[in-house]
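Internal tracking record. Fields below are filled automatically when a chain is submitted to the structure queue. Please do not edit lines marked as system-generated. If the sequence contains nonstandard residues, flag them in the REMARKS field before resubmitting.
Queue: standard
Priority: normal
Entity type: single polypeptide chain
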Amino acid sequence: MVFVGECAQKAAGSSCETGVEKDERFCLHKKEQGFKRSERIKAELVFKRLYREGRYFKTNNFSLRVLPNDINILRLGISVQASVFPKATQRNRIKRLIREVFRRNKAILNKGCDIVVKPGKPEIAKIEYKELEKEILGLFEAAGVLKKI
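SYSTEM-GENERATED OUTPUT FOLLOWS
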């Protein structure tokens, strides 16, 4: 697992060839771990199609919808209801954590799928990152989105 500020190449045991050896936080390999605009689902029509046609998976705290797409890009949408999380700070924290799980683990996810993650219980607002990551990766595995190693 690569930690925030750690070069993915160095974590894999390779040397970093970017010429920015003095400080790992500015390594160019971090760009590979980014969350690009093309990987985001924002359009209401795409969300509606996912809710209508997507396969549904659920755990105690999250539900997930998955649908193959034609563009061979893995895309993520996050749907957090204000009725479940009344405070904006809670909603934003949940979204930030879900995006981070996706960003850090997208190398082990299959391309060509649209995914919508929806948290369901207010208790999730206090959950630690490691617990959240474990639960979401379990959902991804159940949905068949994780690559087989």
